[in-house]
Amino acid sequence: MSAPVQQPALIQPQNKINFIDHLKVVLTVLVVLHHAAITYGAPGGWYMTQKTTLAGAIAPMTVFVAVNQSFFMGFFFFLSALFVPLSYDKKGPRKFIADRLLRLGLPLVFYSFVLSPFLSFMPYNFTGRRDHITYAQYLAGFDGWINFGVLWFVLALLIFTLLYALYRVITKSDIKPKPLPILSNILFFALAIGVITYWVRIVYPVGIVIKPLGFQLGHFPQYVAMFIMGLVASRSKWINAADLATGKKSRNIALGLVLIGMPLFFIVRAWLKYPVEAYNIGGHWPSLWYAVWEQLLGFSIVTALLCIGKNKWNGPLAFLNKLSRSAFAVYIFHPLVLIGLSVLTYEWDLEPALKFLIVGPLAVAGSFGLGLLIVRIPGVNKII
Question: In this structure, are residues 80 and 224 in contact, taking their beta carbons and an 8 Å threshold?
Fold first, then answer.
C-alpha cells in the first residue's frame, strides 16, 4: 500500500514557477564558464588547459570558481530533489525507478562510451607536438572507457534518487513536513555542514577524485545535505513561503563573505605563507576556516536566489524558458563545444586570459545552440 499523495513544494500552476527554469539557465551558464575559467587560469583539472601566468587574471578566475563551487552543484541537487517526491507519487516505485534509470542511465552510458573518448582525443591530437593520428588509431590504444566526466553529477543524482525510492519502498512512508527554517537556522546548519566537510577532507582532500565514478567526496557533504533539503522542501512547501526580506538578507551575507572573506584568504596566505593545499586538505586550521566559509557562502547564495527569484524573477520570459528546456543537453554536451573552441584557438598567439574572454562566451552560446538542436531530435528529446 503506497503512502497518500501529498502536495508538492510548488503548488502554483506551471506558469507560476518560471523562476526555477530561469535559475536552471543561470546555473548551466555558470557550469560552462566555470570549466572555461579552469581551462585558462583557475585552479582545477579539465580535459585540456592553457593556464595564464598573470596574477591579475588568476586571482579573479580563482574567486569565480571558488564562489561557484560553494553553491552551484549543491543547488542543482536541491532543485532536482524538489520534483522527486511528486514524480514518485504519480508513477509508483517500479515506473519511477525505470524512468530514472532511462533518463539518467542512458546519458551516462552515452557520455562514457561515445562522447568521453572523443573529448580526450581532441586535445591529445591537436594541442601537442606529436604527429596527428586518426580517431580509429586513438581508440585502438584507448583504455579509459569508464569515464563519466561532468556527468558525475548525473550518476550521483541517480544514486540519491534510487536511495530515496528504496526508502519509500521499505518504510511505506515519506519524509515528514518540517517548518520553514529561519535564516539563522539555515546558517547554523551551513556551519555544521562546513565542520563535517572539514573532517571529510582529512581523508578526501579537494581534488581527489574517486575513479571511475568521478566523485570528489570532499564536496559531497553539501550535495547530500542539499538533496535531502530539496526533498523536505518539496513535502513542506518551503518555496511557497520564500520571502523577499530573507532573500535580501541572505544576499547581503553572501556579498560580505565574498568581498571581505575572499581578500582575507589571500592576505592571510601571503602573511603566514601557507600553501594553497592547506585550505583544501583537512587537518589544518585554514582548511576548517575555508570549509566553514564555503558552506556559509553556498547556503546564503542558494537562499538568496530562491527567495529573490521567487518574488522578483518569476514572470514568464519566453527566451529563458526555451533555453531551460535545453539545459540538460547543454550540461551533457558543453565539454564538446568548449574543448573544440579551446583546441581551435590553441595556436593563437594570445594571452590565455584573453582567450577566456573570447572562448567563454562563445562556449556558452554554442552550447545552448547545440542543446536547442539536440532536444528537437525525436527520441532523444524524451530522454533529455
Answer: no
